[in-house]
Design brief:
It is a single chain. The protein has 83 residues and is an all-alpha fold. The chain has 2 helices and no strands. It has helices spanning 2-65, 74-82. The protein starts with a helix and ends with a helix. Belongs to the HSBP1 family. Its main location: nucleus. Keywords: Coiled coil, Nucleus. It is found in: Nucleus.
């Protein structure tokens, strides 16, 4: 009886240690994933700002060159090709 109790305690401790290790690993993975997600979102925000700046610079250059912004609808594009 005593050996069975000791064995059960050993197995319970061992199971607890394995579970603790799994929990630690999961927490490390979650932390790493969060860090990577934050970096990706930061890069996307930076890229968005660069695109906005680029669009503004293009619009400024078009204004300086005297070019009006042209937005052709599909009907107008077809009419222009048929002429």
């Amino acid at each position: 009886m005593r050996q069975t109790t000791a064995l059960n305690k050993y197995l319970n401790v061992r199971s607890f240690m394995k579970l603790r290790g799994v929990q630690t690993l999961l927490q490390q993975m979650q932390d790493k994933f969060q860090t990577m997600s934050d970096q990706i979102i930061g890069r996307i925000d930076e890229m968005s700002t660069r695109i906005d700046d680029l669009e503004k610079n293009i619009a400024d250059l078009m204004t300086q060159a005297g070019v009006e912004e042209i937005e052709a609808t599909p009907e107008k594009a077809k009419e222009g090709q048929g002429s």
